[in-house]
Amino acid sequence: MGAYILRRLLLIIPTLLGIMIINFVLTQFVPGGPVEQVLANIQGEGDVFSTLSGGSGDAGRAPQTQSSPNGYEGKYVGSRGLPPEFIADLERQFGLDKPPLERFLTMMWNYMRFDFGQSYFRSEGVLDLVWDKLPVSISLGLWSTLISYLVSIPLGIRKAVRDGSSFDSWTSGIIIAAYAIPGFLFAIMLLVLFAGGSYWQIFPLRGLTSPDWHQMSLLGKILDYLWHIALPVTASVISSFATLTLLTKNSFLDEIRKQYVVTAKAKGLSERRVLYGHVFRNAMLIVIAGFPGLFLAVFFGGSVIIETLFSLDGLGRLGYQAALQRDYPVIFGTLFFFGLIGLLVGILSDLMYVFVDPRIDFEKRDT
């Protein structure tokens, strides 16, 4: 197993390098960069997108351009009326006056030393920004994953045991209907019903804690935190029950129909002993081993809308705002950091397989 883990760790290097190369190359072709973002703000055009379209006042007329100091005619559409020296200074501050290859190699060298640099527009280190946003994303990801497993696994087992019954039918209908509801729509409904929208003011509208949270007792802090996180977690977890529940049910059904279960029952073992002593370990292999991957998916994906609706300042909003502002240090720094975490979680998932079922040997499989 040690040799397999070593090979997987070594494969992280070319995989992560490929991820960074692809995304770095793609950004070179995306219109609008940090310099254009600054120019758009200076000229009162709102953002880089209105600059690229010529601004609201220039509708239907081709925007005027001015040669940049690097000789790229029309490189910055929003640069009209500004001296070339100013634009050259902006390029130098952002490091965009260097060739792309040099910028990429410098960036990767810094990342190898876990130096992710400073944000262009926030005057704060990338790692500090990520650290500040982590509590929100961890809260949403961890609680959503735990609740999904705690509800879906017992429900899936029950549905497998009572396959074809009325219980199986109406629970399937409920979880599939919940899966079909968009998360943002359910979040809005929760806000309207329980956060003072039109009915009851039961839960807070925004934030992860109250303003006086630091002055509360330990129990008060825990209750206040759970009070704030209740609605966002409910909105993010509502659609996750269907896949995990049906996966658990189908896994148990496959195992229940195998010969070793028939043999165990023929020996006089109780149904509960057969179910949890023999079937459970085999059926839950794929479900439990997928826990790290599911947590990572909930942690990084689908949280932008939830964070925005509930005014939570997490990694989802950070990434979205960085993409809009073309804040390259934040974009590439978080991409490298979370790409590395994702690859390590892949190895952890394999270790979970071995933990759940020691009979699995990846080294023999590879040979």
TrEMBL record:
Sequence ranges assigned to domain ABC transmembrane type-1 in this UniProt record: 134-353
Task: Tell me which species this is from.
Answer: Celeribacter indicus
Task: Write down the membrane topology.
Answer: Multi-pass membrane protein
Q: Which UniProt keywords apply?
A: Cell membrane, Membrane, Transmembrane, Transmembrane helix, Transport
Instruction: List the PROSITE patterns hit by this protein, alphabetically.
Output: ABC_TM1
Record-given protein name? Peptide ABC transporter permease
Q: Where in the cell is it found?
A: Cell membrane
PANTHER family this protein is in? INNER MEMBRANE ABC TRANSPORTER, INNER MEMBRANE ABC TRANSPORTER PERMEASE PROTEIN YEJB
Q: Which GO terms describe its cellular component?
A: plasma membrane
